[in-house]
Amino acid sequence: MSWSHEIESPVAASRLFKAGYLDWHNLGPKVLPEILVSAALLSGDGGVGSIRQLNFAPANPYVYVKEKLDFLDHEKYEATQSLAEGGYLGKKLEAVSINFKFQPTGAADGGCVVRIVATAKVLPGVEVGEETFVKARAGLTARFKAAETYLLANPTAYV
């Protein structure tokens, strides 16, 4: 099963890609502490093969996730990650892969659209309701809007 989501932003693709994706393990706990309490790069240098762990606040449906970076294109502002551990992995889902593309809108003042495509393999006999994906979309929107707010308030950050 798969789902997609788009988030529009007035921030340039290069900056939102850096802040909202590449450096999210550092920026996220600062700008979204009510959701993401801590995060760390566990292995690698941030490139393909790197693994980072995101630790969530108690209100979330799961405690943590470990993400593995499977694909990275700095020039096209694109990345694909898979869930290595945590979240719904092993409980509802057998595998999860998410592709992020930050596409410039061509607007004079910058701006981009974040296009997200998630693919998941559900465990046999498990029903995953639409509310799971609604929550995932809302969480991703909160993430990129928090990064956007930070970048708009700090115009020299992540340039």
From TrEMBL:
Pfam families: Bet_v_1. One of its GO terms (cellular component) is nucleus. GO terms for biological process: abscisic acid-activated signaling pathway; defense response. One of its GO terms (molecular function) is abscisic acid binding. Residues 4-117 form the Bet v I/Major latex protein domain. InterPro entries: Bet_v_I/MLP (IPR000916), Bet_v_I_allergen (IPR024949), Plant_def-hormone_signal (IPR050279), START-like_dom_sf (IPR023393). It comes from the Eukaryota. Belongs to the BetVI family. This is Pathogenesis-related protein 1-like. It comes from Iris pallida (Sweet iris).
